[in-house]
Automatic annotation (TrEMBL):
<dbReference type="Pfam" id="PF13419">
    <property type="entry name" value="HAD_2"/>
</dbReference>
<dbReference type="InterPro" id="IPR050155">
    <property type="entry name" value="HAD-like_hydrolase_sf"/>
</dbReference>
<dbReference type="InterPro" id="IPR036412">
    <property type="entry name" value="HAD-like_sf"/>
</dbReference>
<dbReference type="InterPro" id="IPR023214">
    <property type="entry name" value="HAD_sf"/>
</dbReference>
<dbReference type="InterPro" id="IPR006439">
    <property type="entry name" value="HAD-SF_hydro_IA"/>
</dbReference>
<dbReference type="InterPro" id="IPR023198">
    <property type="entry name" value="PGP-like_dom2"/>
</dbReference>
<dbReference type="InterPro" id="IPR041492">
    <property type="entry name" value="HAD_2"/>
</dbReference>
<protein>
    <recommendedName>
        <fullName>HAD family hydrolase</fullName>
    </recommendedName>
</protein>
Length: 224
């Protein structure tokens, strides 16, 4: 890939932020409070979608309870996720990209309230040029949040890269023909991610950092 990259868009949970275990635990807690069946695999599989979509997929049998289950989940997650943090190497990766003049964005299935809370928790509001939460646009894999990010920053789709740990992230980017990178340390399997033809699949943040740097260096050589 020799195209000049101006923007890297990151998913949050399972890509930048080590929160998958707590999300699953909080979904399980909420399901138990309302006596609804839920396996860990099912809870994990929907991470990345907007919360209303999560409720519809996991608890279709009780539509009248979905809002109450969602509130129970949210309360439990906020109360128990204060120790969640970025994966090792994320702070260095973001700082390095920013130092090189790359624009940074977040595209997440979180609500705006939830995203703002974890941006404050990681003291990273100022790191990202723009963020989009599912509650203010369409849920993944609809590409609307990516289109909004590109439009606001004035970046062409071929000059951006989407990085994510789920099929929802990569399918969203594929829907726009945006270059994309999968990470295998989050939610979905390598086999699932490979279906969306990512540039690569990084197995840890360090691998991701090295690969992104190689893209930037190749683009610089091509330009010169």
């Amino acid at each position: 890939m020799s195209q000049n990259i101006e923007l890297v868009i990151f998913d949050w949970d399972g890509t930048l932020f080590d929160s998958v275990g707590q999300i699953v635990a909080s979904l399980q807690y909420a399901a138990q409070q309302f006596e609804q069946p839920l396996t860990d695999d099912a809870a994990k599989s929907i991470i990345g979608l907007g919360l209303p979509e999560v409720m519809q997929i996991l608890f279709p049998q009780v539509p009248d309870l979905q809002q109450d289950i969602l509130q129970c989940y949210a309360d439990h997650y906020v109360a128990n996720s204060k120790g969640d943090a970025w994966f090792s190497g994320v702070a260095e990766l973001l700082a390095d990209l920013k130092q090189q003049g790359i624009k940074l964005a977040v595209a997440t299935g979180k609500s705006r309230k939830g995203l703002d809370r974890v941006l404050s928790q990681t003291n990273s509001h100022q790191i990202f040029d723009i963020t989009r939460a599912a509650s203010e646009t369409k849920s993944k894999p609809d590409p609307l949040m990516l289109q909004e990010i590109l439009a606001e920053l004035g970046v062409a789709v071929e000059c951006a890269i989407m990085v994510g740990d789920t099929s929802y992230d990569l399918e969203m980017a594929e829907n726009l023909n945006m270059p994309r990178i999968g990470v295998s340390y989050g939610v979905h399997s390598i086999e699932t991610l490979q279906q969306y033809q990512p540039l690569t699949i990084a197995h840890n943040v360090q691998d991701l950092h090295v690969y992104l740097q190689s893209i930037l260096e190749r683009a610089a050589i091509t330009e010169s």
